[in-house]
Amino acid sequence: MKAIIQRVSKASVTVGEEQVSAIGRGLCVLLGISVEDTQKDIDYMVRKILNLRLFEDENGRAWSRSVMDRELEVLCVSQFTLQCLLKGNKPDFHSAMPAELAQPFYTSVLEHMRSTYRPELIKDGQFGAYMQVHIQNDGPVTIELESPTGPMDPKQLSKQEKQQQRKEKTRPKVPSESGREKAASRPKVDPSASSGAEGDVSSEREP
Known about the structure:
This protein has 207 residues and is of the alpha/beta class. It has 5 helices and 8 strands; from the N terminus they run βββαβββαββααα. The longest helix is centred in the C-terminal third of the chain and has 19 residues, at 152-170. Residues 141-207 are annotated as: Disordered. One of its GO terms (molecular function) is tRNA binding.
């Protein structure tokens, strides 16, 4: 799951000519859900969003208080385009969770956020609608957040590590064969040139 979190003076969402949601000072969160997201991703993102210290304290000290500490509002907007992958210049959204699954999942995010904080201070847009999002960024302050790596990534990492190990095992074979060839040909060469040949073998082993 990915999120773009903006500290705002105010933010609102309109659909057509109708304003469906609005907040004053607080956070505007654009949220992109991936096909691999689970409840663990919800727990992580909600905890982080509500506890990020993006606000000043009562003495004006910056980066000291969270949105919950200050009892400010949060506006969440579903944003599947955050899961974009580029194929050349064309955006591809296959890594985004399909809408029929993403809607209840997104609702779970909102419910978890409301149960953790104060439900009346959590607002959202209109899932699946063509929205106009009006954001007055305060600072500007924008934080990019991503939940812990999905289950496929460790497998891919393990595969890459195995491939690297194979490369490391096969890499010495080439210079060793070259060394044997040079050792075999050494008697045919003037002994005074042997140090130069050894130098050549040594240089071949350099990465």
